[in-house]
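ENTRY TYPE: paired fold submission
RECORD: A
CONTENT: sequence, then structure tokens
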Amino acid sequence: MTSGEPSVLAVVVGSLVGLSLGVTGSGGSLIAIPLLVYALGMSVQEAVSLSLALVAAAACIGAIEAFQSGLVKVKAALLLSGTGMIGGWVGTAGHRLVREEVTLVLFGVLMIVAAGQMWWRTTLRDDPEERSICADLFPRTCWVKVSGIGLVVGLLTGFFGVGGGFVIVPALTLLLGFPMRVAVGTSLLIITLIALAGVAAHVRLAPLDLRVLSVLIVGAIIGMLAGRQVSRALSPRLLTRAFAVVAWAVAIILIGHNLWKIKGGLL
């Protein structure tokens, strides 16, 4: 960054990533990489390294605030992150066997299904006792379920090469009965841990530009604080439905764009 304009763009990019994480607890890396490539003109490898570092920093800030508000289930986050890293190694190996465009089409389908399940859940009446089993008490009977979710999340994120928030939040809400805000807060800690592991793996391929990263983090802090305020002001049902709509929109774009690329490659 050699002028004020790129610095402003970097702050804007960081703010959008932070806002996404603050409101939904996910989607940070999904939007960070295209913004870094197309708005700041970075190579894909540079964008991946910076995106992971930025998402880790932004998610960490949000996780600390969420923890102070009692919205983070630490045991669930640690278990899910640990098994998620194991699953990620396997998923990454499998990713090399499949064409990138096919992977993104499959990921788009996954997003549509997950978003549909989340929207459907908002039409149901909450059962506080049912939701408290894993969300509040978190007995050992939930540990196996969380570990299994972590493995699946790791496989999916490792295979698709995209941040796991779009999978983590639906898994916590649909499979463990976490309230939306608790799922968002817990996912922020999970994303922090997994993104830090990703930084360690990628930094050898593309060293981090700490000056650019610092400007991005400033923007992410602004976006994260704004996002947390939005999450407090809106109802969990509205947040869930907004999350679902965003997921559907991104999924349609992913599927359409990559099917077009596949079709073009076959001609």
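RECORD: B
CONTENT: sequence, then structure tokens
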Amino acid sequence: MGSAACVTRSLRTLLRVLQSTQQESRILGFGHCRSIGWRRNDLLCSTKLPSLTLTAALHTGSPCCAIPPAIRVTEEPDTLYQSVAVLVKGHDRAVLDSYEFFATLAAQELGITIGKVYEPSKKIERFTLLKSVHIFKNHRVQYEIRTHYRYIELKHLTGSTADVYLEYIQRNLPEGVAMDVTKTAIEKLPDHIKEPLWSSLSMQEKPSL
């Protein structure tokens, strides 16, 4: 009980001190206003302290340290592919069905011409082993491994489009699925075979008159 009474007394004294300080601040502020009014007749008690307002700063501009990526313009022509064949293989047929749908949908979104899409024949490997390593050699067990395939052929691609598409589908390749890519590029005809060799030979073998 004694400690509670001491706490209440201290709280009361603290409250009185706070009230007295508030009254003194009000009186001092009014006197200051009157003194300013006597000194400057044109500003009678019109001096006010600057009001502080809290505003939320929303940064909408671009960061100052952001550097726009440099675009490289090269004179080297882009590689042209007549066809790009994507062969994926795995042991789960449902996973390959889902991945085939994903790969063809991505090609359609990129505007790539899709050629053949089919399922080659599956490969089956069987292993006959002993059921027990040491005894009962007449008891055997057979294991079977089935490998399913999907073949997707894309036609008439540029090198940049092929690189972007292949990187995208390879990053989303499921676990346990392998991929084999075959590219058929369109090359420029070399200069040494543009003209037939027999024309030059015939000119050399002509008898001089």
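NOTES ON RECORD B: The helical segments are 2-39, 93-109, 159-171, 197-205. The beta strands are 80-90, 113-118, 123-130, 140-158, 178-185.
STATUS: closed
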